[in-house]
Amino acid sequence: MDSELLLFGERLLQVRKRRKVSQEELAKKIGVHAPVIGRYERGEVKPSIETAARMANALDASLDYLTGLVDQELDREAVRQISELQTLKPEDQEHILRTLAALIREAKTRQAFGNK
Fold it and tell me: Residue 60 sits in which domain range?
């Protein structure tokens, strides 16, 4: 069986369960029959890109995460902020990203030393 199908199916199942959405609920939201969701989750069939996008949207998940392009599941707010950042002038983007990197380093240092 194709490892891409298994990865998609496993991630679909994980996200669906985390969101506490049944196969039936997801199927209804995207306009397919419930058994089809099970076939996607088991890696038996591959959804079209449109169906995969509808599933990602219905589960408030990243299509990139479901398909294995990224390993971190980004929440919608983080994606929205990144998209907004990309609309700014390059020098503003650079300044914001440097500031963000410094804040992340500081948070990791606090975390490493047990300070919250």
Answer: 3-67
